[in-house]
């Protein structure tokens, strides 16, 4: 019998002064059995950094969909967001399918090694942005996981302050590309 996803609920309040975006999102997050709390919270952080009306989570780890994406009313992919250390081929394919592609890597030293090996192959892709997230801050987010969460995020000057219950975590994405 296959293991089922664990369902998490998050009420995400976003105050993004950089983009003038202020909204509350009631999210249902299905965590695949092989997904860690860290990756799930990186998905939530990526949602906060890129929030818009049509942004939604992809189907899962093994499908041909990104971690998050936004489509316009015609079904055209506007934003494609990947997490971790995707293959160069997958990044190029995403850049051909979406107006904007964002990658968030978050695993510390291995992310640096991945980036060193791939960065020269991606410099011609004008619709691609790559960010590295501090593994300690991401771990702090994962430590705050609850099945039902109230999360407030304030973003200003590229710095995000996440408040999850009693925890306050600062996350500053470092732009690599």
Structural features, described:
It is a single chain. This protein is of the alpha/beta class and about 180 residues long. The protein has one domain (about 5-175): Restriction endonuclease-like alpha-beta roll fold (Roll), CATH 3.10.640. It is built from four helices and eleven strands, in the order ββαβββαβαβαββββ. A six-stranded mixed beta sheet has the order 3-4-5-6-7-11, sandwiched between helices. A five-stranded mixed beta sheet has the order 2-1-8-9-10, covered by helices on one side. It is globular and about 45 Å long. The mean pLDDT is about 95.
In a few lines, what is going on in this structure?
The chain contains four helices and eleven strands; from the N terminus they run ββαβββαβαβαββββ. The protein has 177 residues and is an alpha/beta fold.
List the helices and strands and how they pair.
Elements: E1 6-16, E2 21-31, H1 37-50, E3 55-57, E4 68-71, E5 77-83, H2 88-97, E6 100-105, H3 109-122, E7 128-132, H4 135-143, E8 148-156, E9 159-164, E10 167-171, E11 174-175
Parallel strand pairs: 1-8, 5-6, 6-7
Antiparallel strand pairs: 1-2, 3-4, 4-5, 7-11, 8-9, 9-10
Helix pairs in contact: 1-4
